[in-house]
Amino acid sequence: MVVKKWKQLALVMLVLALVTVTACSKDNNGEKASNSPSDSPSANASASSSSTTAKQTVPDGPTGKYDPPIELTTVRSVNAGVKFQAGDSLDSNVWTKDFESVLGIKVINKWKVSDQQYQNKMAVTMASGDLPDFMLVDAQQFQILVQAGTIADLTDVYAKYASELTKKSIEEGGGLRLKASTVNGKIMGIPADGGGRDDAHSIYIRTDWLKNVGLEPPKTMDDVIKIATAFTKNDPDKNGKNDTYGLSLDMSLFNGWSGLEGFFNGYHAYPFNPTKGTGTNLNFVKGADGKAAWADVQPEVKTALGKLQELFKAGAIYPEFSVIDGIKSGELVTSNKVGMAFGAFWVPTWPINNMKKDLPGSDWGIYPIVSADDKPVMAQSTGGLPSKYYVVSKESKHPEAPFILLNRYVDKLFSNFDQAYHSVDADGVNYAFHMYPPINGSFAEKNQDAAYAVQDAINSKDPSKLDTEQKQYYDQVEKYRAGDLSLWAAEKLWAPGGSFDVIGQYKKENRIFQSVFTGNPTPTMVAKGPSLRDEEVRTFTSIIMGAKPLDYFDEWVTKWMDSGGKDILDEVNSSGQIQ
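Structure tokens predicted for Extracellular solute-binding protein (579 residues):
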């Protein structure tokens, strides 16, 4: 019944999307938008490869050339910030010319719209049934296309035509990207993002304040509480005033800056539902019955909320946190008011990047999250699941061709770096060549690998093995150590003891938690996720601030189950995508 309901809801969502987009497809004067398929010069191009002949030569593996050339259709979003040199466009540039000359693939854009319009335009295309050979879709559209049976099963194509480098890029980081692209044992898409685990939190602590209050870096969550309290009550800035706070927090609750993920993780809790998020990017844990359970309603979350309530009552959290955003919480920290925060690897680049230079005597240490007991602590990551996929039409005559394109892109950018088409600056304009291709890939562990390489070079005092990018980071660290305080962030990113050093420890010790549900948002998540998210935000905020008693958490859990939570769990557990 759940699966049947899912399919029905998918159809309903598609129809609703079509109605919404059709209403928005006219400009302010009610005229037809000029970017419809019929207005495109390529509108009459075949929706599938059209230049085949009886003597067509097709690559027999990841590399090779089509002879005669084929035409492969797609659709594109246009980022307003992407600039083109004279004569270049998304239709014709260094990459499209390379694909045509080296691979024998002429890519034709059936339509192009701004990135703000792309999702709606794609909904119209999906509803029309006139799909290009391949296209980029979001997670919800991916699910709808899978249910509709209009995209190709790429399982065998992936095995034969994806190069080893392409497979490595898709399967790194525990293989979560590939799992998310696989439905009922079939690879149905090529993940366009995801795979990363660098969003796992570290603890950022003012080391000069630690010294001033006579404490050491934390080894347990009790130590975290003790430090936060001391930073509030023991005048850590030595100005003789009671004007500091121990723990940074703002209205987002979950975020790469001033988020609570790392704090919750210390109590073996893994909630995630940002205030400004979609309400569909959720964490699930495996229950005792082997089924998926929503992480946010587990008893460990209640325990952590109780500790946050205690900190708030002690004055260790800014009293107006519920109405300030990340910008404001960052300002509080950089104005010498807060001494500790949980956050992602990039925190040294903002907001604390200039404090060493601007506030003499100040400095920050970066530490791994710690456990409330003797059980190993897991740092949660929510960056592994893709939010976008490249999919191939079931009608395409060459479902392998997108992989041939992707192989070429990945090889040029990540294997033959010096021969790749990089961004160039000319006449004061940056031309981002890497954003031109109709398909692209990346390595989610690229930054981590660079950090390892830089750390090895620092320890050995030998940078000779570094590539161009890694050497740049190494040089920045050396300049900082020579006295250039403006490069403090480089030291805290790439050097031993930096954020990537901490995250690397999690990875090496297999201490990163990822949701057991590898699928895309279910119908009920999409329909009710935002309202359920808002109720969770109100509940958690009220409990932390003491406006609601801690036991209100149990009442909220019951309300969540009755308001759509049970349906979400049923859909998740019937999805076939529980790892």
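Confidence is low (pLDDT under 50) at residues 1-53.
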